[in-house]
Structures are given as structure tokens and as C-alpha cells.
Automatic annotation (TrEMBL):
InterPro entries documented for this protein: 4-carb_acid_sugar_kinase_N (IPR010737), 4-carb_acid_sugar_kinase_N_sf (IPR037051), NBD_C (IPR031475), NBD_C_sf (IPR042213), OtnK (IPR050007)
The protein's Enzyme Commission number: 2.7.1.217
Protein name: 3-oxo-tetronate kinase
A GO molecular function held by the record: ATP binding
Annotated source species: Xanthobacter dioxanivorans
Keyword Transferase set for record: yes
Domain Four-carbon acid sugar kinase nucleotide binding: 261-419
Functional description taken from the UniProt entry: Catalyzes the ATP-dependent phosphorylation of 3-oxo-tetronate to 3-oxo-tetronate 4-phosphate.
Location of the Four-carbon acid sugar kinase N-terminal domain: 5-229
Record family assignment: Belongs to the four-carbon acid sugar kinase family.
Keyword annotations of the record: ATP-binding, Carbohydrate metabolism, Kinase, Nucleotide-binding, Transferase
Main enzyme class: transferase
Amino acid sequence: MSLTLGVIADDYTGASDLANTLTKESVRTLQTIGVPDAALALPDADAVVVSLKSRSVPAEEAVKMSLAACAWLKARGASHILFKVCSTFDSTDAGNIGPVTDALRLATGAAIVPVTPAFPETGRTVFMGHLFVGTVPLNESPLKDHPLNPMTDADLRRVLARQSTGRVGLVPLKDVAAGVDAIRARLEALALDGRTAAIVDAVFDADLVAIGAAAAGLPLSTGASGLGLGLARALVAGGRVLSQAGDGGAITQGIAGLAAAVAGSCSAATLEQIAVAERVMPVLRLSAERLVTHPDEEVADALAWAKGRLAAGPVLIAASDNPEQVAQVQARFGRTAAGLAVEHGTAAISQGLVAAGVRRLVIAGGETSGASVDRLGLPAFLVGPEIAPGVPLLRTAGQAGEPMVLALKSGNFGGPDFFARAFALMGAGVA
Ligand SMILES: Nc1ncnc2c1ncn2[C@@H]1O[C@H](COP(=O)(O)OP(=O)(O)OP(=O)(O)O)[C@@H](O)[C@H]1O
Ligand SMILES: O=C(O)[C@@H](O)C(=O)CO
């Protein structure tokens, strides 16, 4: 397999978001979970998205995992590496976007790295280096209450500089609007001035097409699905990838079995989606406190609840809670310990659901998805049609046993009826 584009994604939902964008742009794309085993038989692809669970781990660990993924992708011919981060730049002052970008820059020999989390289709735009979520700056959006990495500064030059060893510059919208040559010229000037990364403004998809054209000529970029769109357009236009229309129908073919969803995202979008799901399917609200203090009992009770209902249609099991409740649990047990306990609990529930015959599984939340997919030991996914912007259907690939269809939903993505829509596309209707 000879690749053109190698993507290192810092969480699993983000990886499927990016794989979705590339697939929509007709780039033959495969999503792997971690660096694939040498023995894993993979179909041909022009782009591979390696999913890591590296967003919230200590920076040294994230760097190590990302360098291993980079080496694997480069050994298979990838001429450009995209480090896929969250469109809301989820990270802390300790990392991991800065440390990983710095390390990949050295590994790829890049002089400067264009960085933009813009994803206009989902309302993420960057202007004068400041990230907006819809109509408000990042620090006024619900991301200020994120359970693991509250985002309190919208100025990405400052945010990235606090995490990086290098100096951070800006490619302003004026240059982006002037087109690919102006972007290249600004990046070169910033590199000459000693900047090792540059936040690139982008408000419309057209901006990202120009940025993608400039970035495709460099060894490395850091960004979200908007940058993926720009890179895909540049690679297809330059004849560097085989453009191929997707075969969406094949994704759900031959998949029967039960259907369920597990949610651990506490984003405003997911909380609303759970409330809406309650009107059309059975929903169980887990106790985060009990997942910390009596995990086996809480998991067993949840599975018993689900098993009594699955035959009648999809069910949803959610740990998700509002910021006040999450803060209380965190105050009592600590942020990391509470998050990990809930992830372990939801992963055990996903495993129990699959053991009970679930073959159509929706998971909400990046860390939550990572923990569940790891527990299920799924090595790779083929990418199918889109349920909502940034959320495709996925079909398991490369694993022994019966295939499954999954959806890994980024916390903030999807409309209010997301769960019902996902099940309908998976061929499992709700009442
Ligand atoms: N009730 C709760 N109390 C405390 N922590 C919780 C609770 N419910 C979930 N969590 C934790 O909150 C974190 C949510 O992160 P996750 O990445 O799954 O969602 P997200 O950040 O909304 O999604 P994404 O990363 O895709 O944007 C997880 O670590 C999860 O275990
Ligand atoms: O970019 C995004 O917002 C998502 O793909 C994501 O990474 C959420 O975890």
C-alpha cells in the first residue's frame, strides 16, 4: 500500500470526522485504531487516518505515540502528514497540540507548520488567530466547561505558544483571501523570522481550499476537518490520489443484530441529544459516583437493564451529566480519576452490549469512544455515509468475527435527533 496522505488523529471520534471529510471528497480512506499490526491485511487506500487516544494523556506519551504513527505512515509513502486535532483546539497548557506538533515538525523536517482548527461546516472559524464556536469566542462557548480541558482563551497564538518550544506566528485572513501564493509567502516570511508554527485564519471553505493547496506542498500541517477538506481538494486536483466515489450502501450490508448507544460526552449538544432520545427510545442514566465507588455493580445493573429491552429496539445508556453535576463528582474524586472511572465503566458496558448481540453501536464522546473501541479490540474501519457533519457510519475491518457498524460521535456534533438518525441509517428504527 502506498499512501499520499497520512493523518495522525488525537482521538477516535476526531479520526472518523476527518476520515468522513476525506471520503466525501472521494479520497480512498481507511481509519485504523493505533498503528496497525504488521499482520493486519488492509485494503488499498490513498489516505490512512491513524486514531490515537492521545488528546488527554501526558505530553511525553502523546509525543511517543504520534512519532510511532508518523514513522509508520512515512514508511508507507505518505508525503504529507496532517496532525488532526479538535476543531475546538481541546488541550491544556501542558499539551498536547504544541508538544506533538513540535515533535512531528522535527521528524518530518518541516521549517514551519500551518495550524488551523477551522471547520466552517460545524461553525468553527478562525479570525486574527482567535477561534470562534458559532457566534461566540471559544472561551465563551460551552467548551469553557469541558470536563477534561476547559478552554478559557480564544487566542490560539497564545494557547499554542504556551504549549510549544517554538514561536507562533499568524497568517491573517487578508493573506488567505489573496490565495495560495500569498499564504506560501507569509509562511516563508514567518519561518525566516524564526516562527515554527503559524495559526492560519479561515472563515469559509474557500479559505481552507487555498490553505490546503499551500499546505499540501509542505511535509506537515496541524488542524481539523476543514484543513482535511483543503488537503483533499489539493491532492485530487493535483492528481496525487485516485479519486473514487464511495460505496455507502456496502457499509451496512449483512449487519443485523441488536442496536444500542453509549454516551460519555457531557457537551451541551450531547446533553440535548440525550434529552430528545428519551422521547423515542429507552434511556438509562448512569451514576458517575457509583461508577467510581461500585463500578462492577453499576455496570452489571446497566447491562441487566439493557438486556431486558434490546430485543424491542435500540436503547441508550448515558453517563453524561450537566456541568454542575460533573463538577461535584470531580471535586469529590478528582478530574482525572472521575473521567477514567466513567470511561472504564462505559467501555465495560459497550463490551457487555456486544457480548449480548449488539452489532450496531453508537458511542458519543471522543475519550468515551476511545475507551470502548479499545475494549472491543477493533483494529480498523471502512468509512460510510454521513449521519451528521463530522460523523460517518463505520464498518469494522480487519478483525475476526462478525462485522459491526458503529458511529463515533464527537461530543459537539450532530443535531438534536442525532441518535434516532444514526439508528435509522444503521437500519435499526426507533419507535
Ligand atoms: N457524569 C460524569 N461525571 C464526570 N465525568 C464524566 C461524566 N460523564 C462523562 N464523564 C467524563 O467526561 C469525559 C468526556 O470526554 P469525551 O471525550 O468522551 O466527550 P467530549 O469531550 O464531549 O467529546 P469530544 O472529545 O469528541 O469532543 C470523559 O472522560 C468521561 O468519562
Ligand atoms: O474536530 C472536531 O471537533 C472533532 O473531530 C473532534 O476531534 C472531537 O473530539
